[in-house]
Predict the 3D structure of the following.
Amino acid sequence: MTFPAPLTGVVPPVCTPLTPDREVDVASLLALVDHLVAGGVHGLFVLGSTSETAYLTDRQRELVVTQTVRRAGGRLPVLAGAIDLTTPRVLDQVARVSAAGADAVVVTAPFYTRTHPAEIARHFRLVARSSPVPVIAYDIPAAVHSKLPSELVLELAAEGVLAGLKDSSGDLAGFRRVVTGARTLPQALDSARAGGTPMALTGFSVLTGSEALVDAALAMGADGAVPGLANVDPHGYVRLYRLHRAGDLDLARAEQERLCALLGMVGAGDPARMGGSSSALGAFKAALHLRGVIACPATAEPQVPLSPEETEGVGKFLAAAGLL
């Protein structure tokens, strides 16, 4: 697969189906890939937050990438998270997932240790220098406890270090700054090339990870979206993307509002006994199970599973959206 530059469209962060004993359910993973491809998505992102990558062993991560790449069969690009604490560990993950066939890697800022923006920039430069595939930055401060400054993202993009940004920060003003700044990157690259500076970048993608704001992000000029809810309803997000690109803004807004109502399923779990991740990922997997896509709705330990009553609540969201 030749990595598109820039990457556009709907790129779901693929759930990782698990067996009851918490091994990767390969048959269900392949069925999920088929479900997403049939929904018309434009790429697949494995080993992200929705994939529960933090809970998977290196062996399981490699298995997910290998099987997804094989099933995709070159029909669309496969992005893989190379998410770990520090630069040396990320480089190890980059080597693993690129060897397994990933077309690009998705990388966060370092975490656990506190890092300065200069160290974050050095991190991405070192990763890009060693990576055999394009590097996409993943801005997710809720998980890594640092926000990628818009100016830094654009600086690294202009250097050819980054091929794109997946923004899950919720900072719409910062997102707009990146989208606006990205429009001037071709001129910056031409200027750099004219001055003899080697540039690797041929395109830079700005993608939103906010399921409820895809229409707003597209209106700002985003290239696409990486919505976890697209696991459950890929057709809906592809329809939203196509409507917006066709200029049918009223219909696009109505589709976004339908998806926002469906997204209410992430609150199915009782917050008195589980965290938000258990509730959201449990709801996505319960929905995929109820729709007959995966065999088991298990989430990785130590996340708390949904109760039968909470799963029934997920079913009501599916029914209201016309998906059951």
The domain at 9-250 is CATH 3.20.20.70 (TIM Barrel). The chain has 13 helices and eight strands. Strands lie at 9-10, 44-46, 78-81, 104-107, 135-139, 164-167, 205-208, 224-225. The longest strand covers residues 135-139.
